[in-house]
Design brief:
This protein has about 120 residues and is mainly beta. A five-stranded antiparallel β-sheet has the order 1-2-8-4-6, with helices on one face. The chain has a three-stranded antiparallel β-sheet with strand order 3-7-5. Helix content is about 10%, strand content about 40%. The longest helix is centred in the last third of the chain and has 8 residues.
Length: about 120
């Protein structure tokens, strides 16, 4: 179930976030141009492997580190993804707003003592 190429339009829809990790991704709104997801990841929880095939804006109203990216094979990845870098630079005030590129298959582990909560606005391009 891995993604073999860099073209998000060809990624396996069985690994779409809403399909593969429905307990963490709830559709609040969807039309032909946008999909708006509520994203929840409880303290200590690790999401199932999934992808986000569209670019998005992620507005997090509750988050703290550490948060880890995990490969589909279970390897902890370096902290180089958009949201991880933004979290490290964030002053903790207000909401954390992150411009997100499409994300290939992986999972996130919330190693903090706080639930992660936000709204992700995906632009279907």
């Amino acid at each position: 179930m891995s993604i073999a190429n860099d073209d998000p339009s060809t990624w396996d829809m069985a690994l779409d976030a809403v399909v593969a990790a429905p307990q963490n991704h709830k559709v609040l709104f969807e039309n032909e141009n946008l999909r708006v997801l509520e994203v929840i990841l409880h303290s200590g929880e690790e999401e199932p492997v999934h992808h986000h095939r569209w670019p998005s804006v992620f507005v997090l109203d509750q988050i703290q580190g550490p948060v880890h990216d995990i490969s589909p094979d279970g390897e902890q990845l370096p902290p180089n993804r958009d949201v991880i870098q933004a979290l490290e630079a964030w002053d903790g005030k207000g909401c954390l707003v992150v411009n997100m590129a499409p994300q290939a298959a992986g999972r996130v582990h919330n190693a903090s003592g706080k639930t992660i909560h936000g709204v992700r606005i995906e632009m279907k391009i």
